[in-house]
Amino acid sequence: MKDFPEDSVGLVTPQSIHFDQPLTLASGRVIKEYDLVIETYGELNANASNAILICHALSGHHHAAGFHEGDHKPGWWDSAIGPGKAIDTRRFFVVSLNNLGGCHGTTGPNSLNPETGQPYGPDFPIVTVADWVQSQARLADHLGINKWAAVVGGSLGGMQALQWSIDFPDRLHHCVIIAAAPKLSTQNIAFNEVARQAITKDPQFHDGRYYDKEVVPKTGLMLARMVGHITYLSEDGMREKFGRELRSGKLSFDFNPQFEIETYLQYQGERFSTAFDANTYLLMTKALDYFDPAAEFDNNLAEALKQVQCEYFVASFTTDWRFSPERSREIVDALIEAGKKVTYTEIQAAHGHDAFLIPIPRYMEVFGAYMNRIANSLEKNHAR
Amino acid sequence: MRADLEIIRDWIRPGARVIDLGCGEGELLEYLVNEKQVQGYGIEINPDNITACIEKGVNVIEKDIDEGLCGIRNNSFDTVVMSHALQTMHRPDQIVEEMLRIGKECIVTFPNFAHWRARFYLAFRGRMPVSKFLSYTWYNTPNIHFFTFKDFEELCVERNIYIVDRTVVDNEHKHRWWIRLWPNMLGEIAIYRITR
Question: Is any Cβ of chain B less than 8 angstroms from the Cβ of A5?
Fold first, then answer.
């Protein structure tokens, strides 16, 4: 077996948990039974008080940290989860799942519909952030976790953390919201619609029933990812990384990719289109578009947060224009107005929205300091 | 605790909603939350201070106060504190207005540029004063607006700001009987409680 870095959780194996109690969704539709695929890192303590839930973003999944057998690349948030890292697995029991509608083993459009024996495809119901939170609460019950030490997420994951604090105020001590927003801006929805159109207009999409035809809407998914990827990077970051560098050093006067950024986007899109399910991508973008916890409270976020009990850590990144610092400040202002405990930090970073996945020293310092305080207070309570 | 903070803390009533602008390492807020059960928030821009607040468990918001306090509603705090920071603001008058907008009452502390030592320094040495509280040279000082107690009080008159309380102390934040004789000459630090 190969050696893992000292600050890695090492070799990890996902597990699938079956839930046979029907789940009624926000749309009114019901999923009769479903599987959630999860990974856990660290040890749950005797009174089950040190559990952290990790919520994933648009294209994320359960594999947040460590290595799968034979893999060279670790999980998507390995920079923040591990022994001695911001989320220290020597002190916390970390749970990471693939959300309902996902395509990494959890029940989703590419799973078989038990009623038809065929993949769900477009028949899979639209799931919302609140639906995910419901399913995650059932997961907590299953794991014997009555109250999370913290629910943590970046981007769409941060939205789930925020929803948790509203829907289950007494089931989490801390809510960590990184590079998120209280709802999407019109511009965000516009970008998502471009992504959806790219997928649904792909001739291989076949109204979402491409599984039977043994094809995938690769071009559409690739385009969707390319558009998405542009919004994850900052202009400065892109210029710094790729500039106007030409692959062959001179203009070729044709339409083949010549600038480095073209090659990069094509590579990213290509890779994504073979690893992700198009129907899941559509679902995830809808969950984003629909997220708006203030809507039920007369569009008053402070009112929506009135009953929350947890403490909040909110962080944003200076060059993130997809979920800009202003959007995080809306959450912070509403929390202050509602008289809730909140810490907010704005990290100087050139990486745009992607920064939340990157171990920027200042980011890890404040994030780590906050998580450390949670662990300290847990251990103090435990010693009493 | 810094002596001026000891004076400030006694001016804040238990259970109040308090915001400390430029809260440093959060020592005032930590005391107020633990001992007076206030609902406290700090605004800070220095990274090390922010980390220190997080470690203490003080609610800290990273923000450049010079950009204003929009986002915070009118009259949403009982007390707004700014200690030793007003002279570092680009527009102290606008910040005072913002403080009075978001809070029912404000506590401001600042160094007095008309203290006799500063006057003598400038009069006889012909150079900008450097002292314990104004310990920078002119080109690198964060203190970009020098003003005196009289200047501040004149601003209050112009803007219809009511001075509820004023305490003038020396550079060790001690009350001395003789300071009261001629505060603008003998006092080094002033602590004002203002409202509108």
Answer: no
With a cut of 90, say whether residue B139 has pLDDT above it: no
Average pLDDT, chain A: 96
What per-residue confidence (pLDDT) applies to A88?
98
A330, A346, A369 member nearest B62 (Cβ): A346
**Which single residue is written with the structure tokens 């294209």?**
A59
What one-character DSSP code corresponds to residue A296? Answer: G
Residue B133 reports pLDDT greater than 70: no
Question: How far, in Å, are A339, B103, B106 from residue B77 at the CA level?
Answer: 10, 5, 9
Q: How far apart are CA A221 and CA A196, in angstroms?
A: 9
Prediction ipTM score: 0.93
Least confidently predicted of A181-195, A305-319, A344-358, B137-151: B137-151
DSSP state letter for A112 = B
CA distance B45 to B64: 6
Q: Does A303 contact B at CB distance below 8 Å? A: no
When pLDDT is averaged across residues B55-76 and rounded to a whole number, the result is: 95
Tell me if the pTM is above 0.90: yes
Interface of B with A in 59-118 (CB under 8 A): 59-63, 71-73, 76
d(CA B129, CA B122): 6
DSSP-derived 3-state class of residue A173? strand
Which residue in chain B is spatially nearest to A348 when comparing CA positions? B47
Q: Percentage of residues in chain A with pLDDT exceeding 70?
A: 99
How many angstroms separate the CA atoms of B5 and B85, rounded? 13
Tens digit of each residue's pLDDT (9 = 90 or more) over A273-298: 999 999 999 999 999 999 999 999 99
Residue pair B60/B48 in contact (Cβ under 8 Å)? The answer is no
List, as one string, the DSSP characters of A35-102. Answer: EEEEEEES---TTS--EEEEE--TT--S--SSB-TT-SS--TTTTTEETTSSEETTT-EEEEEPPTT-
The rounded distance, in Å, linking the Cα atoms of A266 and A272 is 10
Supply the residues of A annotated as catalytic. Answer: 155, 320, 353
Q: What is the pLDDT of residues A137-165, one digit of tens each?
A: 999 999 999 999 999 999 999 999 999 99
- CB under 8 Å, gap of 24 or more: what pairs does A187-190 form? A188/A288, A188/A289, A188/A322, A188/A323, A189/A289
Residue with tokens 């038809």: A116
The Cα–Cα gap between A218 and A215 comes to: 8
Residue A84 at interface with chain B, using a CB cutoff of 8 Å: no
